[in-house]
Write a structure and sequence with these properties.
Elements lengths: L8 E5 L2 E5 L11 H6 L12 E5 L5 H8 L3 E6 L2 H13 L6 E5 L11 E6 L21 H8 L4 E12 L5 H5 L4 E10 L4 E9 L4
Parallel strand pairs: 3-4, 3-6, 4-5, 6-7
Antiparallel strand pairs: 1-2, 7-9, 8-9
Length: 205
């Protein structure tokens, strides 16, 4: 598993420095988080958007969405990730636009709906070895996301989900009859293909 448990890293995303604490998924170095954040613009994330960054990690998606004028709730099951996202929000004076919450998947936002949900899920099925490993594998996190997503979207709301060809969870999304799924962006990195999907509830599509 590619992580360093001792070193604090500083990455650059959208021209801004981003702190990555030990034990926190590095979505800039591993490209998936940065690639998902690159899909955000004034069209996909207009000012005033109510956004949820699920599994925020270092807070890449939350930070970029907030810079476009969204109000963001950033959640993660890993306390160090929540702390890391808080640090980055404070460092960029975005603490009035980014609220961080600790918890598993939609549990911290029960009963709430969003115009935009960002998700860079664990790509592999299996039992995580420790908290940082939740970023890589879960027995059912993506299945629960697919099942519960419509209850957390506003009418006309969307989720942007980044998946890798290395993972084994894409069929759960592509076979979901209650969701409308289309490819928004794709990149071939030679060793893997990253795809961002635009996902909406069928009734709101």
């Amino acid at each position: 598993m590619p992580r360093d448990d001792k070193v604090i890293r500083v990455r650059t995303v959208h021209g801004a420095p981003l702190v990555v604490l030990p034990g926190v998924f590095d979505g800039a170095r591993l490209r998936t988080g940065a690639f998902l954040a690159d899909t955000l613009n004034a069209v996909t994330c207009p000012p005033g958007t109510r956004a949820l960054d699920l599994g925020t990690g270092s807070g890449i998606g939350a930070m970029v969405a907030a810079r476009y004028g969204a109000r963001v709730i950033a959640t993660d099951i890993n306390p160090e990730a929540v702390r890391c996202a808080q640090i980055n929000a404070l460092a960029h004076h975005l603490e009035d636009r980014i609220e961080t919450r600790l918890g598993d998947l939609f549990e911290p936002v029960r009963g709430e709906r969003f115009d935009l949900i960002l998700f860079n899920p664990p790509y592999f099925r299996g039992r995580p070895r420790d908290l940082p490993d939740h970023a890589w594998r879960s027995p059912d996190a993506f299945d629960r996301f697919v099942r519960e997503l419509p209850a957390h979207l506003t009418p006309g709301g969307r989720a942007l989900v980044v998946l890798s060809s290395d993972g084994d969870i894409a069929p759960a999304l592509l076979s979901a009859t209650h969701l409308a799924v289309r490819v928004l962006r794709e990149r071939d990195l030679f060793n893997e293909i990253l795809t961002v999907y635009d996902v909406r509830a069928v009734s709101a599509a």
